[in-house]
Write a structure and sequence with these properties.
single chain; 250 residues; globular; 10 strands; two-stranded parallel ribbon
Amino acid sequence: MLVFTFHHVESEIYGIARKTRSITPAGLRAIIKTARFLGFNIISLKDFFELKHKSYIQTRKCILFTFDDGYKNFYLHAAPILIEEKCPATVFVLAEKFSGYNDWDSNGTSPMPQDELMSLEEMKTLSSTGLISFGSHGLLHKDLSLLNGDDCFNEIHVSYKILTKALENAFFPVFAYPWGRYSVDAIKYLEISQYKFAFTTEQNLWPKSIQPYKIPRYNILYKDRIIFIFILRFIKTALISFIKHKLLFH
């Protein structure tokens, strides 16, 4: 199985920093069409939850699309394509950042452009389509690997309470680590929480067995590596089948 993560979806991509975190609407549509052409099933978060009852073989050609941070450009540029293509996706949003801007990307020396975030009303509008679901990205996009016990606990547990109340059935108990970073404490608090899964930014296929709070994701960038990823997947599958065949008949 593959899990893809996106950040910005925007018609014009400027600067090196943006190219490492953005994709165009045309690029997003191309990924959807390519995945389906190659026989992959783009699944919803509800489907994702049900996969734990499926065999590894049944899940090998499934993809989950995830979008981090809840940018308004998701609402403006990604959602219309996802809806038109009937493609489900999950957005990880910040419980104390409905509307507002991504101030976590700024610093005193070289501030990045401030990007607007989706409002709660916009999230609810998207949830009504039945294609867009939401998970938690914490409260304020803090690096969990740097937080003490109480602050780490709050990012995980308080965000769950806020988002459950605000988004109701559109919110699923899944968590994505800001910047993909976690700690022993973060894992410990997730294990005693309502969250069923947590996603990193470690780029890898989802293996046959994996800890539910360390699920890897492929980051999809401006220069899409989608074809390369698929090719690697098919080469790996073909090689494993070849080896098994040789062992069986020798």
